[in-house]
Design brief:
CATH class: Mainly Alpha
Largest sheet: 2 strands, antiparallel
Number of strands: 2
Structural class: mainly alpha
Distance between the termini: 36 Å
Radius of gyration: 20 Å
CATH architecture: Orthogonal Bundle
Strand content: under 5%
Strand order of the largest sheet: 1-2
Number of helices: 18
């Protein structure tokens, strides 16, 4: 039996692992990764921009286990729970979470110094500061006007943990919280991933249970994308295709729901040209979550193979790695994570995963315990 504490630790370390494996190759296509690296398997991968001599200009570092904002925001959300010690909603995102990312300094490994997480964030995550600090909006409307992307889903796993074993509650809380950040299918993905993590915490949960949960709670394009990708994964698994065919088949399957393809860079020649990239839609889906689930299905939940296949598929490599990681980390705890990887992640990023998991895990257990007490009280009332 895997303990609750081990599962929490598994989620947090797996977040960092998937993040750090994907970071040096983020935004490269599958073909570009193959040309430059072959198939990435190590945390010590050289960042492709550093190889081009761009690192000094950018003032950032990647490779050697360095994490990105995916992990930083996940740990920030854990700190909000440790402060509030209860379930959260959009008002908490507008308040304590915004303080965590915009005003309190933490070690940013990419900068090799302490700074507000906000200094590191991509534009759709900076939207949190714009809406809740500068615009002083109604918190539940904070996501309005944002670029639709996977930004809320990438850090949402702690909500699945505080609702362990209750996927629907995790979905609802993630939607309530992340509505202060995202809209449309970006918001939907956060709810679905939180539900997947909550399901994976259930003793003896299987990959099939997680996929069924995702399909059950998902809406609109997100639901259809997950069905399409996991169905394709089951089909390809029966004949064990090549990795090249696997990625091409998955990308072909996600294309109707995510029109960008490998065209992930914003360039001057695209300004003023209309497109459906990152715009709200009931028909679209982020690609990271359906792809993550598909790689898990294809590999029967094998830990490293699922993460590495996801990371090497290209595009938003770090977030795909994170989403695979948090689901499998919740299922297996730290059972399959190599000690040398944990050690490198800890040292490079100055994170004590034991302390982080213990302190957050205790708060999560308290929240779950209160939920169970309320349920028992309600059952008693109904029984009488």
């Amino acid at each position: 039996m895997i303990s609750f504490e081990e599962r929490v630790k598994g989620v947090l370390i797996s977040t960092a692992l998937g993040d750090a494996l994907g970071a040096p190759i983020e935004k490269l296509s599958r073909e570009e990764i193959e040309e430059k690296y072959g198939y990435v398997t190590s945390l010590k991968t050289l960042w492709y921009k550093e190889a081009l001599g761009e690192d000094a200009t950018l003032g950032k570092r990647r490779g050697n286990g360095i994490i990105t904002d995916d992990t930083l925001m996940t740990l920030a959300l854990c700190r909000v729970y440790k402060t509030e010690k209860r379930h959260l909603d959009a008002y908490d995102l507008a308040n304590e979470f915004t303080k965590e990312i915009a005003f309190r300094k933490t070690f940013i490994p990419e900068f090799n110094r302490k700074a507000p997480i906000l200094d590191r964030l991509f534009y759709p995550e900076k939207h949190i500061f714009l809406r809740h600090v500068l615009a002083n909006c109604e918190p539940r409307q904070g996501g309005i006007g944002n670029m639709v992307n996977c930004g809320a889903a990438m850090y949402i796993a702690p909500i699945g943990i505080v609702n362990a074993g209750n996927p629907l509650a995790a979905y609802n809380e993630a939607i309530a919280f992340a509505s202060g950040h995202q809209v449309s299918y970006g918001l939907e993905a956060a709810g679905v991933l939180a539900a997947c993590v909550a399901c994976a915490f259930t003793p003896n949960a299987t990959v099939e249970n997680v996929v069924e949960t995702a399909i059950t709670v998902a809406k609109d394009g997100t639901k259809q994308a997950i069905i399409a990708l996991t169905t394709k994964a089951e089909e390809l698994k029966k004949r064990k295709c090549s990795y090249h065919e696997l990625v091409k088949s998955f990308h072909d399957s996600i294309a109707p729901f995510s029109p960008m393809g490998d065209d992930v860079h914003r360039k001057i020649e695209k300004v003023g040209i209309p497109s459906n990239h990152y715009t709200p839609s009931r028909l679209f889906s982020i690609e990271e979550l359906p792809l993550a689930l598909a790689f898990i299905v294809y590999n029967d939940g094998e830990y490293y193979k699922s993460i590495l296949d996801g990371v090497n598929s290209g595009r938003d490599t770090d977030s795909i790695g994170v989403m695979v990681g948090v689901i499998l980390g919740a299922m297996y705890g730290t059972k399959f994570i190599e000690e040398e990887d944990i050690d490198l992640l800890s040292r490079t990023n100055q994170i004590n995963f034991d302390n982080e998991a213990t302190s957050f895990g205790e708060v999560a257990k308290q929240i779950i315990k209160k939920d169970l007490q309320i349920i028992r009280k309600q059952e008693g009332i109904i029984g009488h």
